[in-house]
Amino acid sequence: MIHAIYMKNNKIFILLPDGVGLRNFAFTNFYENAGSQGFDVSFWNNTPFDLSEMGFKEHKITHSKSHALTDLVKRARNQIDLNQNIKRSGDKVYDRYRFPLSYKGFKTALKSSFVRGLISVFDSEKGIATLRKRITFLERKTPYYTNCLETLRKENPAIVFCTNQRPLTAIAPIVAAQDLGIPTATFIFSWDNLPKAMMVIETDYYFVWSSHMKKELLYYYPYIADKQVFVTGTPQFEPHFDPSLLISRAEFFKTHGLDPETKYICFSGDDITTSPNDPQYLSDTATAIRKLNEKGHKLGIVFRRCPVDFSDRYDAVLESNKDIIASIAPAWEKMGTNWNTILPLKEDMALQINTIAHTEFVVNLGSSMVFDYVSFGKPCIYVNYEVLDSNFPKWTIEKIYKYVHFRSMPEKTAVVWVNDPSEFEAKIKNLLQHHDQHVKAAADWFKVINQHPVNLASERIIDSIKTIITT
Fold this sequence. Notes:
Elements: E1 11-16, H1 22-26, H2 30-36, E2 40-45, E3 58-60, H3 70-89, H4 106-122, H5 125-139, H6 143-155, E4 159-162, H7 171-179, E5 184-187, E6 205-208, H8 211-220, E7 229-231, H9 249-255, E8 263-268, H10 278-294, E9 299-304, H11 315-320, E10 325-327, E11 332-334, E12 342-344, H12 347-357, E13 362-364, H13 369-374, E14 380-383, H14 397-400, E15 416-418, H15 424-433, H16 436-449, H17 457-470
Parallel strand pairs: 1-2, 1-4, 2-3, 4-5, 5-6, 6-7, 8-9, 8-13, 9-10, 13-14, 14-15
Antiparallel strand pairs: 11-12
Helix pairs in contact: 3-4, 3-5, 6-7, 10-15
C-alpha cells in the first residue's frame, strides 16, 4: 500500500488526447486511488465525454488542431522508424506494419509525394532526430500550442501524464509542458505498439506494461535512457480482480436471454483490418457447436464484436445461427468517424468481465483477450487458417502471427491452435474437459507481457508519478 506524503505541488494532469485512455484511467480505480494518496487529479480532456458528470475534475481541450504538416512529417518518421528497425535487426517483418501511401486524388497524391520525399532525405537515425525536432517546431506555431501554454500556466500541474503515445493531438500539450519545465510522461497503451513504430510523442518518462516491453522500448528508441522508463503494468486488467463488478450467472443469463442449461463459449471479434474473414471463422465455430450438440452436448456461443466494428458483416451468420449464437454488443458509443472516436462507456467494463466469467473460454484471431480470459483461469483458441474463396485475397493469416509481439509467447500451448475448420469440433470438446496445460502456459505468457500482481498496476503508476515529482 502506498502512503500519502507531503508534496509542494500535488496536481496531476491526466492528458486524454483521445478516448483510448478512458478505460485505463477514468473507468478503473486509478482516480480514486490517486486521490487517496494526496494527489489532486484533473483530466485534460480532448474527448467528447463530459467527465465532470462522472464526478471527475476536468479541463476541456477545444480546437485541438495540429499543424497541417505535422501529420505528414509523422508519417515519414513512422516509415523511417520501420526502415531503421529492419536495418538494426536484419528482419523484414517490420515491412508488415506499413500502410501504403495513397495516390488517389491530386491532394492525396501531393501529400504522399511529400512524405516520400521526406523519407528519401531523412532515412537514417540522424534523419529521425531532425524530423523529431521538426515536429515540435511545427506544433509550437499552432494556436493549439498557445492555448495549452495558457492552461498550463494557469493550472501549474506538477506533471502531465499522457494516456496514449500515438495521437497527434498529444504533441502540442506535451511540448507546451516541456517548454514550461513541467515533467511529462506517457503510457504505452497496447502490447503491440512498440514494434509498429507507433511512438508519436516524446516525453521525459515512459510507463510500460512489463520488463519485456521496457527492453523493446529501449531497443526501438535508443535515444530513451533506462532511467526514463517505469515498469508498472497496465490498469486495463485490474477490474478483472474486482469482485464488486461481478453478477451471478443466473442474473447475467437472464439479462441477456441466455439458456441456463447451456454452456457458452465466447467468440471475440476483431476489427475488419485485422481479420476481414472473421464472419467465416464465426460460422465455422457455429458449425462445430452444432455438430457437438447433435452428439448430446448443450453448447452455445456468445458473440462479442470488436468495440470499434459497427459493420453489418456478421449479420448473415448471426441470423442463420440465431438458435445457438447470442450477440452481446460491447457498451461503446460512436461519437465520430474515426476508430479513436468510438469510445467505451463505463458499463462496458462490467459487461466484459461478466461475459468472461460466465463463458467457458474464448475463440478469436490473435487478440489480447487471451490475457483477459487467463485472468479468470480460462483458456483461449486462436484461429489459424486461411479462408478459401475469400473476398480478401491479399490478406493472409500468416501475416498476423508473424507480428513481433507474438514472439513473446514462451510456449505454443499458451493457446489452442485451430489450423483447419475441421479441427474445431474435437478441440472445443477437448478444451471443455482438459484445459489446465493451456491455462498454465497462458499464465506464464501473461507474466511476460504484464507486470504482476496484475491488480496493483494503478498503485505502481501512482508510486512512479510520486517518484518523478518528489525527486
